Each structure stands twice: as C-alpha cells, then as structure tokens.
Amino acid sequence: xxxxxxxxxxxxxxxxxxxxxxxxxxxxxxxxxxxxxxxxxxxxxxxxxxxxxxxxxxxxxxxxxxxxxxxxxxxxxxxxxxxxxxxxxxxxxxxxxxxxxxxxxxxxxxxxxxxxxxxxxxxxxxxxxxxxxxxxxxxxxxxxxxxxxxxxxxxxxxxxxxxxxxxxxxxxxxxxxxxxxxxxxxxxxxxxxxxxxxxxxxxxxxxxxxxxxxxxxxxxxxxxxxxxxxxxxxxxxxxxxxxxxxxxxxxxxxxxxxxxxxxxxxxxxxxxxxxxxxxxxxxxxxxxxxxxxxxxxxxxxxxxxxxxxxxxxxxxxxxxxxxxxxxxxx
Length: 330
Description:
The protein is mainly α and 330 residues long. The chain has helices at 15-25, 30-46, 58-70, 76-94, 119-126, 131-143, 147-151, 182-204, 214-219, 254-267, 276-289, 294-301, 306-309, and strands at residues 158-159, 164-167, 176-179, 239-240, 247-248.
C-alpha cells in the first residue's frame, strides 16, 4: 500500500505559524485553531518558553499534564484537550513520535446527573426573556439544540415546508433532523424575513459574504453570497474574517445568549446552576417523562449511544405509585 504523504509546513516559518498552516490544511475550525495554539503556547511557557518542543518529549508532556491535574485542578475534559493539542503538535507539525504518555496523573472524571428544570420552571424562565434571545432559548428547549448548533444555524437549515430544522456537522460530525415547535414557527418566519432583508442590504452595499468551509467554497464559489448560506442568527455588525481578511457578517456571539439565559434564571428565582445546556437536558428529560421512546430521544439528541441518553432516566420525575407489581398480574 502506498504511504500517504503528510503535509509539511514551511520550515522557515515560526513554530506557531507552522502549527496554523497544518491546522488550516486539515480544515480545523477557527475555534479549534485558537484552542490548540493556546495550549501549545501554555505547554512551552511551562518549560520557560525558550526550549523548542523537539528538545522536549513524553516525560515533559507527562509533567505538564500532571501539573494541570494536581496543581491546576482542571477537569478531565480540559486535560484531554491539552493532550490533544500537544499530540497534534508532535504528530502533525513536527512529525516526531511522542511516545507513551499513559503514566501521567489524570484528572478525575465524575459523571454527575444533569441539572434539569421542570416545565413550569422553563415557562417562568422564558417569560423573563424577549426578542431574539427568547427565540434562541425556545429553540434550545423546543428542539434540544446545543448552544453552538443554534448559533451556527443557516437560513437553509430551517425548512418551514416540512416544519423541520436540519442540524449539520454537529458533535461527532453527525447530522440530524428535529421538528420545529408549532408555538414558535410564526416568530421564526418573521425573523427569517428580517435576516433576508439584512442580507439584501449587505449585498446592495457591496458586501453580503458569509464564512463557508474551504472545501464547500471551492465546490460552490457563489455560496458565500447566497441567501441560504447566511447565518440564521447574524451579528448586528459586519466584521473581518481572521483567515480570509474579507469583511463578512458572522453569526452572533454565544456569550450574549449565555448571559441572557443566566439573567432570566435569576429573575425567575431559580436557585440552581442554569445555563444554555440546561434547556437541552430539560428537553430530553421531558420527552422521556411524556412517554417518548428512549431510542427516539437518542436520535433527536444526536447521541451515538443510548447509554448517553439513559442518564436522563435518573433525573426524570417518576410516579412509583402508578407502577403495578408483577405479582398483581398473575
């Protein structure tokens, strides 16, 4: 079998420029690029910032990751993220075998039951919101969307004819379809019309471009100005894309919705830790409480395994008095 040639960054470039070259060659998301670069810099800074990573190895990686666990008290997911970034540096940028780092001190991984609101609490919280943030929060709860799935919705992903939302390239690269709640369909149509009007205005002013993944941009060169590819929740202001340098209209910042949800929960006097993902957890739990088959819930949530969905069975409200003893059935 012919060996696949690896992409080689420009050896004359600075280390972090080489990292970005490889990340962009493999079409990593801009957020992943920023995160990986931050962890690589933090790793190098841990050893003084003057030692080239080719002069470091598995022992130093273990020391850094163990320090994150013992001194930094980081979560297991954070430690894995740091490891992924460092492995990428050695494997894909430097082409140096890193060796075994399995002996490092790992952060404890505790799987806690999710925070779930009652339907009455959700109603009270949504009652404290308005405008676009309300519409987005209703989608999180009404469709079980993750925060960034909602933020990154495109105009073409909302199918009013079939009353469906198409979630594309979600966690794990999976696509799925969910139904649009009838309660907000009219509001979504009004918002949809506003987005199209905003796009027409951008085009008239000589703009109207939106970020498109590089492979799709090559296949569909006109997609970046097509109305269907525009973000369903666009930013109020145009901005310069950090990679292409073009002035575009990106999606809204997720921090705005996060703050709005936390503020609404406080105003509704819900004295628990509530965030955007709480609405997704509540969606799944309420579906199960309403008798929806767990396999259907698994598909709607986009879970790879039903075991992930089963965690909601531990927090759903159960009326044990309605359960009949098997002895009574014989």
